[in-house]
Amino acid sequence: MEYYFNKTINDSFENAIEKVTEALKVEGFGILTEIDIKAILKKKLDVDYYNYTILGACNPPFAYKALLAEDKIGTMLPCNVIVQEKVKGQVEVSAVDPAASMQAVDNVALTEIATEIRDRLQKVINTL
Whole-structure pTM over 0.90, yes or no? Predict the structure, then answer.
């Protein structure tokens, strides 16, 4: 089973991040964290890397339901969406499949929540 789904779009890296953020918002997600991997690797290791940003997306009502169903699920939150540009103008957007990542947790209620979140994240990727 794949643990993510993705799509490549022809756009600038900056525009892609804006489009992803807006598409997430439409599905009820906000961005809790934005990690610029390129900048971190340059600062910490003095290496050059291509544009790569991790967006930590959260849908508060679903996060709350998940926490009520499984109090340790915070170890798997937020839902990560990555935006990367290996080739200028070709931006790959990938989102975690929460249903796949939460298979290890034996909790039927959580499985239902993860499936709903997966459907919303997949819709985000499909709309790009």
Answer: yes
